[in-house]
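To: structure subgroup
Subject: Chain for Friday's discussion

All,

I'm putting the inputs and outputs inline so they're searchable in the archive.
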Amino acid sequence: MTSPTKSSERSSMLDSIRGIALFGIFLNNVYGFSGYPFLPEEIRKEFASYPLDKAVDVFQHLFIEGKFYSLFSLLFGIGFSIILLRNKEKGLAGLKIFYRRIFILAIIGFLHLRFLWSGDILLLYALLGCLLPLFRNCTDRTLLIWAAALILSPILIDTFKIILQASPGSFMENIAINVDATHGLDDNNWRTYLFKEGSGFREWFNWLPGGPYWRYESLLNSNRLPKVLGMFLIGFYAGRKHIYSSPGQYKSLLKKVMVWGFAIAVPASIAMVWFADDGKYVFKSAWGLLDTFFYAISVVPLSLAYASSIALLWIKTGGNTGFKVFAPAGRMALTNYLTQTIFGIIIFYGLGFGLGQKIGLAACFGIVIVVYALQVLFSRYWFKYFLYGPMEWIWRQLTYGKKLPMRKGRDENLNKPI
């Protein structure tokens, strides 16, 4: 009979990286929650924190944007390899468990996307995750070739966009515009709709129906699908080689990934920020391909450099590193990710405290730091008494088709899965 991974089989290093990725994702998502990117520059200049906001904005684009979602994608691929290999070793139906797990994640993601926030990433992970089993019999070399091809494919895709003057997400955009129009949203009011004086639940409900279409228009036009799948495959490779469980055996490889990752990604990230502000975009100019190129060679190398750096520190300290403080938050990443949406809505939207578009970006980052610190503390406290995070408990019960203990001491042989 299939069962979740025991606590002794968990990797605290993976939990810590997952917790760190969750923090970076929250810093990235605060742009959407706060509505800051929709503000005209002349209004941003009215904030007393404007010079600091500019510095924070550049820092975010250099070292955060896309990097921590990539880390999450990497961990998803590792998780797939753990499920498949662990159940294969026991003679169990690894694919059956995997697809059941994916199906439940897709439901959670859809509900999150449709009824809470249009920035959801869970549904995309579930949809693309369905493709992972197609690569399970590939050699290591073939797996890495596929990963590199997918991660670099946006350069070719955007080239065809320029030649054909066609957008893969245009049909989603048309649907979104029509849906928004039926709820009183148009190009004149959508930037301030959730944050204007007097906005509340009605505005939020009006905003939600068009959100999924705008989300997938953005995902398609930004070529996110092949990039995420490529990171899944790198994670699958890392999991298959057991790098997460025996990092010391791969110290040389991790050093190379860290050094080359930073060497390539830092200057590429600087170039990415520079060319993003030159006014030349795909469709308008072939020079817009420079945005695509530098994004492709900066985001993934830097995220891999982050992961390798943490792994090397883990090796050096024998796991006694300050990064372990993030492990409890990483153990209940699904719960914390969804809770961040609740915090974002309450803090920034008009139906809550309504701080969106009323404070600068530096203050928004400060709020994220405080909220995430509370999540870390709460997660640590939670696992003193419970085996699973709340949403993880539900997810695992539905995945394995049996009741799992929630409180510690009920069954010492069962614990929260990876």
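Points worth raising on Friday:
The radius of gyration is 21 Å.
The chain has 17 helices and no strands.

D.
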